[in-house]
Every structure is written in structure tokens, then in C-alpha cells.
């Protein structure tokens, strides 16, 4: 387990997330892609912290990424609820315009 | 010992990436949710290998709960039993795949080609304690920023998800003296 290997695994997770976020039509599945991307970011940040500069306060960055994940989930579900109510749909392709 | 650790790391790495791929390959949303939860648990376990006990455990706990909530939302929105319904709802599959592979090549290439500097400093004896002290001391501003952000998220999510707000009840210019609500049974206005 070296920094290189940890970062390559993180890059793999991030790339799979990119594919999901770009290719999926259902809002919740798009959110899953975003979550996978953040999953990779967490792993990369943890690897960089441990192998380069394991100062105590570096861990705070990971807490911030986890908080960002929480915010993404909450807002994603709110948007999915709104979309479901206004369009009776959960597909991104049904929300390509800005008019209500 | 390090050989065992390396073996465990690679096992977790394969599990995390494979279950991440499975999220978009399986034919039902329930299975996709479980696959994502497995990926998060594997990453949480990798954090434990990096001695991040606290962050690793909260990643596992939070994400398992989050996936459970996600399952509820899926059933709610899709109006069907998501474990039984095959699905393939994608657009621009080839373009997305090309972009994802490109991102991986750039990121992994950077990780392998960069001459990373030597480790500076040493980890604290008790990492969880040192994280707590950092939050309450030198990095308190970060937590002070995250707290209103989370509160704003709560408010924004409620406003977005609320079926009607003050403008629906008091008119577009808020001049209606009495609200048209509260919502009653059978009232779908």
C-alpha cells in the first residue's frame, strides 16, 4: 500500500462516478455517480494526508468532504421530490428546460 | 504484517471499484443501492487501514444509513418494487464511457508520474483525539462554516420539497389577508 496505489484506486472510483453522473437518466442514479466521485475524493485525500503530511488538522479536510456529501444528498433528494411533484417524473431528460 | 496489510488493501480496492462499477451495471435500483453501500464500506475499511479510525467508522455508518434512505426514495419515486424491475435508463453511454476512461487515464497517470515529496511530520499518537482538538482549536473556523451551511441545506431542502409556500397561501404579492391553508384532507390545491 503506497500513495501511488491509493491514488490509482481513488482515480478508478472517481472515473466510475463520472461515468454514472454523465450517463444515468434517473436523478437518484446521477446522485449515486456523484457519491462515487466523492468517495474517490475521500480516499485520495486520506492517502495524501497519511503518506505526505500526517499533521493532526489535515483530517478536518475529510470531514468537510463528508459534509459536502451530506449536503449533496439532501439537496438531491429535495430536487428529486420537486421534480417528481411538478413533472411526475424522476428523469433528468424531463427537466431540460428552466420554465415551470 | 505489511504483506497481509497489502493483501487486505488490494482486496478492498478491488471490492470498492468493482461494486462501484456494479452500481451502473446491475438491473435494479435496489441492487445498485446495495452495491454503492458495499463500495463505501470498502473505502471506509481502507481509511481504517490508513489509521483513520474515526473518519473510517463515520464513513461506514453514514453511508450505510444514507443508502437505506436512498432505497426508500427510490421506491417512493419509482412507484414499483425496485428489486424486481429490470432497468436500463442511460443516455450518451459511449460519450460518458470515453470521458470516464479519459479522466481515469489523466488522474492515474498523474498519480503515477508525479514525483511525490517525502513525508513531512509524524501522525499524532491518538488521531481521533487530535482531530477533536483540531476541530475545537486551530480549525474551528471550518466547523463554524460547515454548521450554517448544513442549516442552510436543511432550510433549502425543505423549501424545495414543500408542496406550497407562503406565495401559494397568501397570493403572488402576499396581499391575501387570510391564508388559503392549512392543507386539509382532499385539498390538492
From TrEMBL, chain A:
The alphabetized list of GO BP terms reads:
ATP synthesis coupled electron transport
EC number of this enzyme: 7.1.1.-
Function, as annotated:
NDH-1 shuttles electrons from NADH, via FMN and iron-sulfur (Fe-S) centers, to quinones in the respiratory chain. The immediate electron acceptor for the enzyme in this species is believed to be a menaquinone. Couples the redox reaction to proton translocation (for every two electrons transferred, four hydrogen ions are translocated across the cytoplasmic membrane), and thus conserves the redox energy in a proton gradient.
What family does this belong to?
Answer: Belongs to the complex I subunit 4L family.
Which Gene Ontology terms cover its molecular function?
A: NADH dehydrogenase (quinone) (non-electrogenic) activity; quinone binding
Question: What is the official name of this protein in its record?
Answer: NADH-quinone oxidoreductase subunit K
Protein location = Cell membrane; Membrane
Topological category with respect to the lipid bilayer:
Multi-pass membrane protein
Gene Ontology cellular-component annotations: plasma membrane
Q: Where primarily located?
A: membrane
Membrane-traversing stretches: 6-22, 34-52, 58-83
Which Gene3D superfamilies would you find in this protein's record? 1.10.287.3510
| Domain of life according to the entry | Bacteria
Question: Self-association or partners: how does it assemble?
Answer: NDH-1 is composed of 14 different subunits. Subunits NuoA, H, J, K, L, M, N constitute the membrane sector of the complex.
From TrEMBL, chain B:
Keyword list (alphabetical) reads:
Cell membrane, Membrane, NAD, Quinone, Transmembrane, Transmembrane helix
For this protein, what is any one GO molecular function term? quinone binding
Stretch forming the signal peptide:
none
Going by the record, the broad EC class of this enzyme is translocase
Residue ranges crossing the lipid bilayer per the database entry: 7-26, 33-50, 56-77, 97-114, 134-160
Q: Which GO terms describe its cellular component?
A: plasma membrane
The membrane topology noted for this protein in its Swiss-Prot or TrEMBL record is:
Multi-pass membrane protein
Reactions accelerated catalytically: a quinone + NADH + 5 H(+)(in) = a quinol + NAD(+) + 4 H(+)(out)
Localization recorded for this chain is: Cell membrane
Q: What is its main location?
A: membrane
Q: What is its EC number?
A: 7.1.1.-
Does this UniProt record's set of keywords contain Cell membrane? Answer: yes
The answer to whether keyword Lipid biosynthesis applies is: no
Identify the Pfam families for this entry.
Answer: Oxidored_q3 (PF00499)
Coiled-coil annotation: which residues? Answer: none
* Primary role: NDH-1 shuttles electrons from NADH, via FMN and iron-sulfur (Fe-S) centers, to quinones in the respiratory chain. Couples the redox reaction to proton translocation (for every two electrons transferred, four hydrogen ions are translocated across the cytoplasmic membrane), and thus conserves the redox energy in a proton gradient.
Q: Which family does it belong to?
A: Belongs to the complex I subunit 6 family.
This protein is called: NADH-quinone oxidoreductase subunit J
Amino acid at each position: 500500500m503506497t500513495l501511488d496505489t491509493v491514488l490509482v484506486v481513488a482515480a478508478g472510483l472517481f472515473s466510475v462516478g463520472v461515468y454514472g453522473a454523465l450517463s444515468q437518466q434517473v436523478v437518484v442514479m446521477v446522485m449515486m455517480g456523484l457519491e462515487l466521485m466523492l468517495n474517490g475524493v475521500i480516499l485520495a485525500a486520506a492517502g495524501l494526508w497519511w503518506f505526505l503530511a500526517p499533521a493532526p488538522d489535515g483530517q478536518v479536510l475529510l470531514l468537510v468532504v463528508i459534509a459536502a456529501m451530506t449536503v449533496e444528498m439532501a439537496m438531491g433528494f429535495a430536487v428529486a421530490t420537486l421534480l417528481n411533484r411538478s413533472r411526475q417524473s424522476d428523469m433528468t431528460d424531463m427537466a431540460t428546460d428552466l420554465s415551470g | 504484517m505489511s504483506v497481509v496489510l497489502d493483501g487486505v488493501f488490494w482486496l478492498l480496492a478491488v471490492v470498492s471499484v468493482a461494486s462501484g462499477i456494479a452500481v451502473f451495471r446491475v438491473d435494479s435500483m435496489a441492487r445498485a443501492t446495495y452495491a454503492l453501500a458495499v463500495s463505501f464500506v470498502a473505502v471506509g475499511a481502507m481509511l481504517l487501514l490508513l489509521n483513520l479510525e474515526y473518519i473510517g467508522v463515520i464513513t461506514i455508518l453514514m453511508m450505510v444509513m444514507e443508502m437505506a434512505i436512498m432505497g426508500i426514495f427510490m421506491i417512493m419515486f419509482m412507484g414499483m418494487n425496485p428489486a424486481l424491475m429490470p432497468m436500463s435508463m442511460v443516455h450518451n453511454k459511449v460519450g460518458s464511457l470515453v470521458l470516464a476512461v479519459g479522466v481515469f487515464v489523466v488522474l492515474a497517470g498523474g498519480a503515477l508520474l508525479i514525483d511525490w515529496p517525502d513525508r513531512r511530520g509524524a501522525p499524532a499518537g491518538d488521531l481521533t483525539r487530535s482531530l477533536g482538538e483540531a476541530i475545537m482549536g486551530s480549525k474551528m473556523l471550518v466547523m463554524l462554516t460547515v454548521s450554517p451551511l448544513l442549516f442552510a441545506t436543511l432550510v433549502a431542502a425543505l423549501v424545495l420539497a414543500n408542496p406550497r409556500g407562503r406565495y401559494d397561501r397568501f397570493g403572488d404579492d402576499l396581499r391575501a389577508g387570510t391564508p388559503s391553508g392549512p392543507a386539509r384532507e382532499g385539498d390538492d390545491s
